[in-house]
């Protein structure tokens, strides 16, 4: 029986992971769950159904509400950022599914690695922020970082059984998001509802906006650089609207190996949990005759400047990816709150990247400090833009 801790248990990836646990009750049990605490009722259901040893919530008031709703004996309840770290560090688990959204996942995911627990990684922002530190720690503790992102799971599968020295490049596919064909002049009028309408994947709000700006693909380039230990220029993007080819690896002899499947996150989640084995699932099957055509395009950096910004941050290195990620998180949250326009998102990130602290990132603490300072800076820039708009 594999014991699983799910960070972000109430989110899109977290709930899908719990469904998989339910489908394989003889294989998996839930050791711990963590969330922010937005939907306490959902956590009550999770506690009843999966009987985790502990639950950690970022918001202490949510812990009080949960305690009032859960009769004893109940799971151990942990609160705040320290509570999330204690969960992954102290509660015995074989795999920690890292599926919080954003930088909030950094410290609990690092704690899981330091405690020697395998990590199934969905929370790409953590690897964007601290790629070198996190992969070094994983190697040091002998901990596998198993990709959950469908593109990275695809690359991982295309690499199996091959010599890493023979990799020429990695081709990450991108659906292109809802604005793949929208003329540049119309980007300024994009609404939150427009941007939340993703053509192929149903996901949490932040990643859906990232998919609309294509920052998601930029973050994935950085994620791939670290997960697969390749040079930045070896990771390239190709737009593929059908989302059937999940990604590809091209080898030095010109052979390209691709992984294909239906758009269902259950498949990469299950593979991360059972790797190197596979399990039969009732998931829908790919019917290529029905799909008919697979098409591929170059991405358009003029309409999607986030691609250029992410690439720039990766090449600059040091603290630049931390600044990129923090600025993006604040800008996306402000867009979702309807305080700024869609086109303000890349502008705020570009402004933030002008001022990146020099030098290598020596510690997670340094990373956390730069993240916090960037968030403050970009919040001020958002307030200034929102103020100008309301004048
Ligand atoms: N969804 C997908 O198909 C998909 C695919 C590939 C990769 N990913 C990646 O997986 C991660 C999760 O995505 P998602 O779509 O599952 O997100 P989501 O549906 O928005 O869920 C986010 C989860 O994180 C928790 N959370 C949010 N902010 C937090 C904070 N500040 N501190 C602690 N917990 C917090 C939420 O708790 P509450 O519910 O209590 O707020 C929720 O459990 C992201 O990094 C995303 O890029 C997602």
Straight-line N-to-C gap = 60 Å
Low-confidence stretches: none
From N to C, what is the helix and strand string?
EHEHEHEHEHEHEHEHHHEEEHHHHHH
- Mean pLDDT, as a whole number? 96
Strand content: 5-15%
Shape: globular
Helix content: 40-55%
Distinct small molecules bound, one entry per kind: NADP nicotinamide-adenine-dinucleotide phosphate
**What is the CATH topology of the domain at 2-147?**
Rossmann fold
CATH architecture of the domain at 2-147: 3-Layer(aba) Sandwich
What is the name of the CATH class of the domain at 2-147?
A: Alpha Beta
Q: What is the CA-atom radius of gyration, in angstroms? A: 20 Å
Output the number of helix runs: 16
Structural class: alpha/beta
Describe the fold and architecture.
With 391 residues, this protein is an alpha/beta fold. It has a domain of 146 residues: NAD(P)-binding Rossmann-like Domain (Rossmann fold), CATH 3.40.50.720. It is built from 16 helices and 11 strands. A 7-stranded parallel sheet has the order 4-3-2-1-5-6-7, with helices on both faces. Strands 9-8-10-11 form a 4-stranded mixed sheet, covered by helices on one side. Helix 5 packs parallel to helix 6, helix 6 runs parallel beside helix 10 and helix 14 runs parallel beside helix 16. The longest helix has 27 residues. It is globular and about 60 Å long. The termini are far apart.
Which key features would you list for this structure?
alpha/beta, Rossmann fold, 4-stranded mixed beta sheet, 16 helices, 15% strand, binds NADP nicotinamide-adenine-dinucleotide phosphate
């Amino acid at each position: 029986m594999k014991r699983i801790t799910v960070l972000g248990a109430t989110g899109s990836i977290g709930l899908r992971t719990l469904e998989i646990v339910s489908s394989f009750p003889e294989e998996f049990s839930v050791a711990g769950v963590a969330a922010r605490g937005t939907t306490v009722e959902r956590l009550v259901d999770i506690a009843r159904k999966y009987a985790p040893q502990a639950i950690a919530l970022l918001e202490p008031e949510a812990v009080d509400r949960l305690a009032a709703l859960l009769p004893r004996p109940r799971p151990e309840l942990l609160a705040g950022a320290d509570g999330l770290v204690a969960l992954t560090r102290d509660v015995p688990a074989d795999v920690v599914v890292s599926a919080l959204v954003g930088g909030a996942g950094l410290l609990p995911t690092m704690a899981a690695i330091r405690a020697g627990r395998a990590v199934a990684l969905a929370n790409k922002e953590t690897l964007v922020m601290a790629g070198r530190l996190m992969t070094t720690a994983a190697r040091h503790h002998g901990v596998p970082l198993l990709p959950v992102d469908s593109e990275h799971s695809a690359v991982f599968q295309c690499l199996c059984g091959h010599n890493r020295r023979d990799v020429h490049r990695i081709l990450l596919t991108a659906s292109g998001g809802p604005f793949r064909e929208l003329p540049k002049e119309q980007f300024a009028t994009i609404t939150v509802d427009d941007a939340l309408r993703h053509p192929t994947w149903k996901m949490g709000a932040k990643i859906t906006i990232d998919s609309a700006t294509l920052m998601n693909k930029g973050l994935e380039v950085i994620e791939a650089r670290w997960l697969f230990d390749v040079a930045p220029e070896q990771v390239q993007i190709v737009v593929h609207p059908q989302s059937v080819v999940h990604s590809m690896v091209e080898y030095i002899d010109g052979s390209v190996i691709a992984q294909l499947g239906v758009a269902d996150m259950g498949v990469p989640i299950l593979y991360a949990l059972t790797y190197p084995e596979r399990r039969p699932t009732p998931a829908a099957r790919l019917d290529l005759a029905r799909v008919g055509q697979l098409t591929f395009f170059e991405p358009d950096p003029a309409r999607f400047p986030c691609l250029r910004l992410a690439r720039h941050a990766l090449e600059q290195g040091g603290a630049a990816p931390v600044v990129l990620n923090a600025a993006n998180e604040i800008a996306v949250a402000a867009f979702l709150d309807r305080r700024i326009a869609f086109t303000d998102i890349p502008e705020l990130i570009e402004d933030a990247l002008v001022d990146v602290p020099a030098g290598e990132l020596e510690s997670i603490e340094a990373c956390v400090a730069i993240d916090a300072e960037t968030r403050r800076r970009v919040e001020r820039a958002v307030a200034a833009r929102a103020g100008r708009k309301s004048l």
